[in-house]
Amino acid sequence: MMKNKKGIKGIYIELIDAFNEAARSTYPDEFLCMLRQDDGIISEMILVPGTVYGDSHSFMNDWMAPVDFSLIGTVHSHPGYSNQPSEQDLSYFSNRGGVHIITCLPYDRNSWKAYNSKGELLELEIFSDERDDFLDL
């Protein structure tokens, strides 16, 4: 696993719960949104108007995305049990940000993985928004 070179040190557990809930609510279609960081911790999902969710793909209108330098990548769901990036995912990763998360069934705290823009696995610490400290899961 690689350490992130973009200064991203972790993700909030509450955000993991939120994107998994979004994935459950769009199932069997894929969910897709952008990610925002604050002080090196991935902290927020940004829903982009005009995003299309489909059963084997999702499409985000880049021209509808906000101009925001705190955006660092994307999160999307797979409707099956694999959180490995597809060839289409790898192509998308190389054009959009430095951190990309894929979650899969059963959409829980253990069903996601983070990747860099080359599709290499990233290691992210888990933080709690309430206590703002490291969680050992």
Structural features, described:
- This protein is of the alpha/beta class.
- It has one domain (10-51, 67-127): Cytidine Deaminase, domain 2.
- It is built from 2 helices and 11 strands.
- The strands form 2 sheets. Strands 9-8-7-6-2-3-1-10-11 form a 9-stranded mixed beta sheet, with helices on one face. A two-stranded antiparallel sheet has the order 4-5.
- Strand 10 (125-127) and strand 11 (134-135) form a beta hairpin.
- The relative contact order is 0.25.
List keywords for this structure.
11 strands, alpha/beta, two-stranded antiparallel ribbon, Cytidine Deaminase, domain 2
Q: Report the major sheet.
A: 9 strands, mixed
The CATH topology annotation reads as: Cytidine Deaminase, domain 2
Q: Report the count of strand segments.
A: 11
Summarize the amount of helix as a percent range: 10-25%
Number of helical stretches of at least 4 residues: 2
Strand order of the largest sheet: 9-8-7-6-2-3-1-10-11
**CATH homologous superfamily heading:** Cytidine Deaminase, domain 2
Global outline: globular
Helix/strand-derived class?
alpha/beta
Distance between the termini: 17 Å
Strand content: 25-35%
- CATH C-level class is Alpha Beta
Low-confidence segments: none
User: What value does the Rg take, in angstroms?
Assistant: 14 Å
Give the overall pLDDT as a whole number: 85
Following the backbone from N to C, one meets helices and strands in this order, namely EHEEEEEHEEEEE
CATH second-level architecture? 3-Layer(aba) Sandwich
Number of domains: 1
